[in-house]
Amino acid sequence: MTASGLPRRAATLGAAFDCAGEGIHTGVRSEVRVTPAVAGRGIVFRRAVGSGVAEVPALWTHRRSRPLCTALQVGEGPLVRTVEHLLAALTAMRIDDAVVEIVGEELPIFDGSAAPWCAMIRTAGRVEHDAPRRYLRVLKPVEHVNGMRRLTIEPADAHLLSVHIELNHFGPLDWSGPVTPETFERELAPSRSFGRVTWTIPGKIRGLWPFGEPLLRGATTKNTAALWKNTAIGGLRMPDEPVRHRALDLVGDLALAGLPLLGRVTAAHPGHEHNYALLAALMRDPTAWDVATLDADGPPRAAA
Question: Which Pfam families does the record match to this protein (predicted)?
């Protein structure tokens, strides 16, 4: 660990863990096993298809646009849907290498938050490799603007977020802070996926159209903060829970960089499509970033 609190060495899980549950969009149960992996493997999904297995690395080049979630696919291979909560938990808990085996198309939604993933990762433990941890260091500002949506990333010596949204009946909501295991578990992970009750019912119907994408088929008040006026059915976990969840999703979407970030992200009205647009703009500009490692003391330096 460096003086800044960032780890110098890459890490994987201390043990495998298993879980199962329904997806929020497909409504179908899947089974998941998350296992340790060797240094440099990154986060890789392995989906069982028929008698074979397809590998889908969690990288921005494999991201596919799907309604209200982040999905991954290699070429015309099988899709892996709703990966953002697990990716957010893994990157925030500083797990660099893991294999996620899934029987099914969509990861479980659990209670709509990342807290169950964090609990399983915490129980499995973190074991460091005998290899330096490689960081994606932002070298210059990059911006994505679309109407009222404005997302920027700029140089910093840590992963920092500042997120702003405005919702009818709620007004402006803001969250800012570093992405560390402690802040993520305490402040972001418990926040749930959310939507207006008036959106959810049409969404469920739309998802039943013959050739439509599955949409919210598994959404219930047990796994979604169903907003009604200025609260949620059953209550909110925090008064500003919606903006915290947008920050959670942003952490997961930016994890598709494939390396932990050293950069400050400022996001007004983020969403999956716009989070990806910012990441793609960054990654497509080779002058905007490099890969760095950390010494015991001192600033990051370019990796050899």
Answer: LpxC
